[in-house]
Specification:
By secondary structure, the chain is of the alpha+beta class. The protein is built from 14 helices and eleven strands. Helix content is 47%, strand content 18%. A hairpin with a 4-residue loop joins strand 6 and strand 7.
């Protein structure tokens, strides 16, 4: 942190700082990593415990919230063995305070001891978790946030040519940052490929598997022939031998020059095309088994063409499935709500559609809309939107 701060300082200020010997030594000391070495952190925290625990009135010393903060800091910064040593120092200080309070005819409150005991257990739990992960401090949380951001960036649609636009909406159950639905896409010239994947489960329970699969599926998309994408994903999942449920996916290949498309499905809710000439929604007959169940899978693809004004909807079962209801009824309800997208515009109403349909369901929801504009809109050619 200090090195980054120094690098961003103006050259003149850095030149002046180099003339101060004490600052130069401190900078070199931090660059060697000595500031964050565990023994220095332990010594500093132990001195803080002694300073807080041996100053002032005995009850005030023991009840000080500073001891709680020091113990929590040790849980975040120290390994479990060093945390035990720090807790030993804290216990010695508490014992001294208890003896001092007993001599004065006062007792040390049980609430103080209970509070520090609970804090000690929390600190040990934090230290053990971090030691298992091999990270210090809040780095584990930072890694998860970085993975989440990478997943979102991977779900962004590539830049589309004039006359085309797209919208991606992801809504995780319970307001979580992680979910079991994700999107991967790739564009090579006039060929656009998009895959919407649904990992069974919801929220953080499915988030870890979704994070791993998004990288694997993203690497396969565009690297294999379009007709071989879902079979390659199936072989990959079958090798994993997972027992935590199933994975469904829908894959679309679109020729951006002609509008011709091919839809393949692996146990996923059917894609839907909006026909601007008739104003009707047509459900795709593409079907196939869920991924990872059998070693080799066969898909029944569906072919069609998107004309100006037409649109293609991909969605997950969180938008159409609910306990006690038929899947076809859920699709009809979704399409009934989707009628508002036509006059309002697909870009405006996609987010509202997902929020409206998902309001009565506690599940991860995802929607991908790809459409041809008529005439080409001024915003066409920009990168597709991603909303979470």
């Amino acid at each position: 942190m200090l090195q980054r701060l120094v690098r961003h300082l103006p050259l003149r200020i850095r030149t002046l700082l180099r003339r101060v010997p004490l600052l130069v030594r401190l900078y070199r000391w931090t660059r060697q990593g000595k500031l964050t070495r565990e023994r220095y952190v332990f010594v500093a925290l132990a001195f803080l415990v002694l300073a807080v625990g041996l100053g002032g009135d005995s009850q005030e010393r023991a009840a000080s919230g500073a001891l709680v903060l020091i113990v929590l800091g040790g849980g975040l910064l120290l390994k479990i063995r060093t945390v035990v040593a720090l807790l030993g120092v804290v216990a010695a200080v508490i014992a001294y305070n208890a003896y001092d309070a007993w001599d004065d005819g006062r007792g040390l409150g049980l609430g103080v001891i209970a509070t520090l005991s609970i804090t000690a257990l929390l600190a040990l739990t934090l230290a053990r978790t971090r030691q298992q992960l091999g990270v210090q401090g809040l780095r584990g949380d930072s890694m998860l946030l970085e993975l989440r951001d990478r997943l979102r960036r991977q779900g962004e649609m590539p830049r589309l040519p004039a006359g085309w636009d797209a919208q991606v909406v992801l809504l995780q159950a319970g307001g979580s940052s992680f979910g079991g639905d994700f999107v991967v896409s790739a564009r090579d010239g006039d060929r656009l490929e998009v895959a919407l994947v649904d990992v069974s489960g919801k929220g953080t329970d499915a988030g870890t598997r979704a994070l791993m699969l998004s990288g694997a599926f993203g690497g396969l998309l565009g690297s294999v022939q379009p007709e071989g994408f879902l079979p390659a994903c199936n072989r990959y999942l079958h090798r994993q031998g997972w027992d935590e449920g199933f994975v469904t996916a829908v894959h679309v290949e679109i020729d951006l020059s002609t509008g011709a498309y091919t839809v393949e499905s692996a146990g996923h809710p059917p894609a839907v095309q909006f026909d601007a000439s008739s104003g009707e929604w047509q459900v795709s007959p593409a079907k196939g088994v869920v991924l990872g169940v059998v070693p080799e899978m066969d898909c029944v693809p569906d072919h069609g063409t998107l004309m100006p004004g037409d649109a293609l909807l991909l969605y997950t079962d969180g938008l159409v499935e609910s306990p006690g209801s038929d899947l076809d009824a859920g699709i009809e309800h979704l399409l009934g709500q989707a009628e508002r997208l036509v006059p309002e515009g697909f870009a405006r109403g996609a987010r509202e559609l997902v929020e409206t349909v998902a309001a009565a369901r506690d599940d991860d929801c995802a929607l991908v809309v790809i459409w041809r504009t008529w005439p080409p809109s001024p915003a066409a050619g920009k990168q597709g939107h991603l909303e979470t």
